[in-house]
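Hi P.,

Sorry for the delay on this. The queue was packed all week, but I finally got your sequence through. Input first:
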Amino acid sequence: MDNFFTEGTRVWLREQGQHFPSTVNSCAEGIVVFRTDYGQVFTYKQSTITHQKVTAMHPTNEEGVDDMASLTELHGGSIMYNLFQRYKRNQIYVQIG
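Then the structure:
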């Protein structure tokens, strides 16, 4: 996989069949460390990371959207993360479609 990882990059990490919103903590000497927004830490050899395992997070997913149908990445992780972002801002009601 291409070396697009830099510290602080926001990504979706697919682990155990779920997408976790994560941040690249470090990428050095062929080892990449990810920290999920839920406090979990995952470490991988860079050579083993595929696009199915890690994808870059679109900026709108970081901020949250009003209409869930307008999410650029539509999977269970992005839906739950969007609801979490809205909950933190006390905007608990959303539109769908």
